[in-house]
């Protein structure tokens, strides 16, 4: 099989031509560095995405906290993760890096807070 992938590992955004079979990546070209190999292989055989969203917080100085998946989740699970987060309600205070959902929808990834939320004054 053949395809084109835009490498997003750095801002250069190389458009990489790739060839692969059922089990492995066979060739890439037009990449400016070797990092494209792992990126393209991941996109073909195990595409993952970082999900960013917000979660409700009770008794906080603001009502929502920004969160993200860590590490990225399988692309096929992104919608399920978003649906799950719609029902999560935290209690203030929340600190940056707090794990607010462990092993979200069985992906092995955690949802972590990316903003500090103080108790409402
Ligand atoms: S192939 Fe290398 S230079 Fe090109 S976008 Fe990917 S990381 Fe950047």
Structure commentary:
The protein has two domains: 2-46; 52-113, CPE0013-like (CPE0013-like fold, Roll), CATH 3.10.530. Helix content is 16%, strand content 36%. The chain has two helices and ten strands. β9 (99-101) and β10 (110-113) form a beta hairpin. The longest helix is centred in the first third of the chain and has 11 residues, at 35-45. The radius of gyration is 18 Å and the shape is elongated. The model has no long low-confidence stretch (mean pLDDT 97). The structure holds iron/sulfur cluster. Iron/sulfur cluster is lined by residues 7, 9-10, 12-14, 31-33, 35-36.
N-end to C-end Cα span: 60 Å
Radius of gyration: 18 Å
State the helical fraction.
10-25%
Structural class: alpha+beta
Hetero groups bound?
iron/sulfur cluster
CATH architecture of the largest domain, by name, is: Roll
By CATH's scheme, which homologous superfamily of the largest domain applies?
Answer: CPE0013-like
pLDDT averaged over residues: 97
The neighbouring-strand order within the major sheet is 8-5-6-10-9
Strand content: 35-45%
Q: Which class of the largest domain in CATH terms?
A: Alpha Beta
Would you give the CATH topology of the largest domain? CPE0013-like fold
Number of domains: 2
Number of helices: 2
Report the sheet with the most strands, covering strand number, pairing sense and barrel closure. Answer: 5 strands, mixed
Element-by-element helix/strand order: EEEHEEEEHEEE
- Return residue spans where pLDDT drops below 50 for at least 5 consecutive residues: none
Overall geometry comes to: elongated
Query: Total number of β-strand segments?
Result: 10
């Amino acid at each position: 099989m053949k395809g084109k992938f835009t490498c997003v590992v750095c801002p250069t955004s190389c458009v990489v031509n790739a060839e692969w079979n059922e089990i492995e990546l066979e060739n890439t070209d037009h990449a400016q560095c070797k990092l494209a190999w792992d990126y393209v292989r991941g996109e073909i055989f195990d595409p993952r995405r970082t999900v960013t969203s917000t979660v409700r917080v009770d008794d906080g100085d603001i009502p929502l906290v920004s969160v993200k998946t860590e590490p990225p989740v399988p692309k096929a699970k992104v919608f399920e993760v978003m649906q799950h987060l719609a029902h999560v309600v935290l209690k203030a205070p929340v600190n940056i890096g707090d794990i607010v959902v462990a092993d979200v929808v069985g992906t092995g990834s955690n949802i972590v807070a990316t903003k500090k939320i103080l108790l409402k004054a």
